[in-house]
Amino acid sequence: MSRYRGIAIAAAIAAPIVLLTSCAPATQSTATGKNVSAEKIPAKVSANTSLTVGAPDLKVALELSGQIDKLPFKVKWANISGGPQCSEVFRANALDICSSAEIPSIHAHWTGLDTKLVAAKFRNDPLRYPIYELGIAPGAGIKTLADLRGKKIAYSPGQAQGALVLRILKAAGLTQDDVELVELASTGDVYPTALGNRQVDAAPIADVNVKRYLTKYGKAGGKTIKHGLRDDPAHLWALTDSVDDPQKSAAVRELIKSWARAQIWIDKHPKEWIDGYYVKDQGLSREDGEYLVKRSGHPDIPADWAGAIARQQRTVDLLAKEQNREPFKAGILFDRRYESVGADAISGAGKKPDAGEKSVAGKKS
Fold this sequence. Notes:
The chain is α/β, with parallel strands linked by helices.
C-alpha cells in the first residue's frame, strides 16, 4: 500500500489542484545526462540568436534596472516558472531556460528529461531567512517537529516542498510510516487553505502565504513553526539541447551575467522592486511587498558550486530512498562551464556557501 494518499479535488478543498507533471512512475526511463562540459562556448553571441526564457521576475528586474535592452541576443519571455510548468514546456521543446528550485531538475532526470542547472543563487544566513515555514492547522497540537508523528502532512513529490517534508521528517527522526502524507500540488493558496480547513495538520508554506495564513487563521489557532533546515536553492535551469547548441550556449552565458546583476540590483533597490514588481506587476499591497523583501535577506551567488552539488547529492540520495528511485551522481545536473559566470559578473560578490548545511539543532539537513 502506498505510504501517502491523494485527495480528490472536490472532496479536499475548494481550490484548484494541478497534477504534478514531473511525478512519473519509478519505472520510467531516466535521462541520459549528456555531458556538454567539453563543448566550447563561443566568445560572442550572434544578435540573431534567440532564447525563450521562463523567468517573469527576471524580466521585470531587467526592465526596472535598465538592462533589458542591453541583452546581446533576442529573448522571448514566457510567463511561466517553477518545476511542473517548466518541465512540461521543456518536453514540448518550447522553452530554453527557466527559473526553479533544485528538485525539478532531479525529477526531470528520473523522468527522461535531460536538463542542466546553469546558475545558482542562495541566501546569506539561510537559517535566519528561510523560504518556507511549516504551517500548522488550528487545533493540530504540533509544537515541535517531533509532534508530527501521526499527523497529516501536505506533500508534493515533484516540488521543493515535497523534498523539504522528507527532510523535516528525517530531522525529526521520523519516517513516512510515522505520518500520513497527503498528496497535494503546492500552487497558489492550496496549502494555506488545506491547513485552514483542517484537511491537513501541517504543510510547508512560503512567502506571502505565511503572512496571509497567520492573518486569516491565527485567531483560530493557526500558526507556523521554523523547520530549522536550509531551503534556499534557486537556479536558472536549461534544456540540455539548448546549452549544447553553440550560439544558444553563448546566449545563456550572457543571460546569466544579466541575471546575476539583476539579483544585486534588487537587493540594493528594495523600494523600486517593491513598487515595480510586487505592487505593479504582482498586484500585491505595499505592505506585502515590504514583508517579502524583509523576509528574503540578501543574495549569495557562489563562484564555486562544490557545496551546492554536495547538498544536491544528499537530496538525490534522500529522494531515491524515499521515492523508490535510482540514485545518481548529482554533478551531472550542473553545467559547470557556467560555474563562475554569475559571480564574475558582479565583481566577486558571490560567496561560497558552506558544504555542510546544518539545522538549528546542529544536525546536517
